[in-house]
Amino acid sequence: MITSTRVADPAAETAYELCRDLERVGISATVTSCNGIALTLIRDVGLNVWCQWGEPYGWYYRWATGRVTAAGYWEFAMCSCLAHDTALRRILARYEELRTMLGTPGRDVVCGGQQ
Fold first, then answer.
1. Higher model confidence: residue 43 or residue 2?
2. Are 82 and 59 in contact (CB under 8 A)?
3. Pairing label, strands 37-42, 74-80
4. Where are the domains of the chain?
5. Within its chain, how far is the Cα of 104 from the centroid?
6. Could you tell me if 40 and 22 are in contact, meaning their C-beta atoms sit under 8 angstroms apart?
7. How big is the chain by its Cα radius of gyration, in Å?
8. Mind giving me the DSSP string for the chain?
9. Dihedral of CA 16/58/111/97: which sign?
10. Which residue(s) pair with 51 in the sheet?
11. Residue 105 pLDDT class (50, 70, 90 cuts)
12. Per-residue model confidence as pLDDT tens digits over 32-59
């Protein structure tokens, strides 16, 4: 007899928590996960937020800032998943920056998640 058990995926669980918080302020997002890395995608502005494990940080969120380094590499912001509210504020600020830059209609969000 074969039985299956659900294996906890901390990356996916953390990404879904971010997704739920984004949806609470009216931002639609989807989550995809595989092999301990999860991606929260905010399609209307093309913002991808990864959740992954990394030493010495532990679980953290990472997203592109839109800037390029002098060496020509994309610059990324990161924030510990333990500081979820801080990460959410920073991601909302990046969302607003992209929405303004792209002229994308959407819900105005006050950083911190309050409308």
1. 43
2. yes
3. unpaired
4. 10-99
5. 19
6. yes
7. 15
8. -----PPP-HHHHHHHHHHHHHHHTT---EEEEETTEEEEEETTTTEEEEEEEETTTEEEEEEEEEEE-TTSPEEEEEEEGGGHHHHHHHHHHHHHHHHHHHT------BTTTB-
9. negative
10. 38, 61
11. low
12. 998 889 999 999 999 999 999 988 889 9
Q: Which token pair is 6?
A: 């659900």
φ, ψ of residue 30 in degrees (nearest 5): -125, 155
Strand partners, 53: 59
> Who has greater pLDDT, 1 or 86?
86
Copy the structure tokens of residue 99. Answer: 């929405």
Predicted local distance difference test score (pLDDT) of residue 114: 38
The one-letter amino acid code at 30 reads T
Instruction: Give the alpha-carbon dihedral of 51, 54, 60, 61, to 10 degrees.
Output: -50
Closest Cα partner for 100 from 61, 47, 62?
47
Contact 36, 51 (CB under 8 A): no
- Token digits of residue 34: 């595989």
- Tokens read off for 94: 């990046």
C-alpha–C-alpha distance, residues 96 and 102, integer Å: 10
